[in-house]
Description:
By secondary structure, the protein is mostly helical. The protein has one domain (about 25-115, about 120-175). Helix content is about 75%, strand content about 0%. The protein is globular. The N and C termini lie far apart (about 50 Å). Mean pLDDT is about 85; it is low at about 1-20.
Amino acid sequence: MKNALLFLFIFPLSLMGFSQTNLSEIRKSFFKMNDDTCAAFRLFEAVQKLNYQDTPLLLAYSGATEAASAPCIKGSFKKLEYFSRGKKNLEKAVQSSPKNAEIRFLRFATQANIPTFLNYDNFGEDKPIILKQLPDLLADEKVKSFWLKASDFMLKSGKLNKEETKTVHSSIEKYEIQ
């Protein structure tokens, strides 16, 4: 009985550590997707091997990478199927954790890279949440590198207005100096 209780306590903790290690690698790999058409598909397959359904952030990575995998998939219907499932998982993640800036960024990045005819646009909802949390995220050494890359992506996306661009630049300048 004592061993069973110990197992029930330690096992979830070991999974959390496992996910954190993989999350760090997933974050690093996310920005490499632009370098190789099928990198998104390989990252999607890697995320699928994790307990991604249990964690909104991993669910968002699953959704973003699945949606981004479409160019690597053959057949128009299959491409749309991958995109649709990815979108569905991104939306589930946002519903589960609506204030999570990283989930919002993953949706922002997905939407910035798709054709407009797919009518998937939540920039107006996502940008305020990301921009409000950006200074704190850049101050956090554990995720600073990710958020510097995310900031650069957002600036290059063409989806920010002048005021939002100014906000991102001032946040970056403040934390790049440190």
